[in-house]
Design a protein that fits this description.
13 helices
């Protein structure tokens, strides 16, 4: 298991370097620059050149990236080109919002998706086919459209939840839950459908195996068969898909945070990209990449626990 963890962590180093370099390149190819945003309508060439020099934008792209990478290795992610604040402090102030959204969404996906999948697999017949149809529809619904419908119905018409905004959990746990209710539903809907369909398919497949039929013929209780034999074998493909769904939540969180005005990393990334604030954008990308590495590592650990043969390979 330690070899598995060490190998995954070792592979994460080139991943971080490649993604950070791609971010620098894509931001450089995007029209405009931070100096233009700072100056606004002021087009004085002398002032423009001075601002570019102050921000370090007059250096070549490899020089800018090399300076950023050297600082990142030391734990210094630089400063915002606009506010002058340390990027690490800016990211830290937004991280709790994004983690709250992602963790709650993951819990909803795991609990509701597994429950619906088991219900469809064990009941079969019409409930199972109905679940498959609903899953396909849920996976096809665009996240922005679903968010707008949720806001219109539950926030505007019924006034059950706030339209936008975020309340820290330390300030008001109830307000925190209400503020995240609609964003979590919006972000988790597609993932619930994917996991429900995957769980149903995996459980049905395991229930059809000869070994399970033999256990039934020997008179073992259905609850024991499902709990001790079916669940562990069906969990392997579900865990792998769940990891992919969690990574997909990172991209979905950018849309959801913009839609519900949540001050998280997704909203910060959009703002930094629009302002060409490259240090802040790099900090967000680095944070997202670390989250992807952590998710993949957790998936590998759970998979190795369910099937020790994975660790042996």
């Amino acid at each position: 298991m330690l070899r598995l963890v060490g190998g995954r962590l070792l592979w994460s180093v080139p991943l971080l370097v490649v993604l950070s370099a791609l971010t620098f390149l894509l931001a450089w190819l995007t029209p405009g620059d931070a100096a233009r945003v700072v100056l606004g309508t002021n087009t004085d060439p002398a002032a423009y050149a001075q601002v570019r020099s102050q921000l370090g934008l007059d250096r070549s792209l490899p020089e800018q990236y090399g300076a950023w990478l050297a600082g990142a290795v030391r734990g210094d992610l630089g400063r915002s080109l606009f506010t002058g604040e340390p990027v690490s402090a800016i990211v830290d102030s937004r991280l709790a919002v994004s983690l709250s959204l992602l963790v709650l969404s993951a819990l909803v996906i795991a609990v509701v998706g597994v429950a619906l999948g088991l219900f469809g697999a064990l009941r079969g017949g019409v409930p199972g086919r109905l679940l498959d149809g609903m899953s396909v529809v849920a996976m096809s619904v665009p996240t922005p459209w679903l968010g707008l419908v949720l806001v219109l119905v539950f926030a505007v018409e019924l006034a059950w939840f706030p339209v936008t905004g975020y309340v820290p959990v330390a300030q008001s746990p109830g307000g925190w839950a209400l503020a995240l209710a609609l964003p979590v539903v919006c972000l988790a809907a597609g993932g619930v459908a994917v996991i429900a369909k995957q769980v149903r398919g995996a459980v049905v497949e395991v229930l059809g195996r000869p070994c399970v039929r033999a256990l039934r013929a020997n008179g073992l209780p259905a609850r024991r068969i499902i709990g001790r034999h079916v669940a562990r074998n069906a969990a392997l493909p579900v865990v792998s898909v769940f990891g992919v769904v969690l990574i997909g939540l990172l991209g979905g969180s950018v849309v959801v945070e913009q839609l519900f005005a949540l001050p998280g990393l997704g909203q910060l990334a959009v703002t930094a990209a629009a302002q060409h604030d490259l240090p802040v954008l790099q900090g967000v990308v680095l944070c997202f990449t670390v989250l992807v590495v952590v998710v993949n590592l957790l998936v590998d650990l759970v998979t190795g626990w369910l099937d020790p043969r994975v660790v042996a390979r």
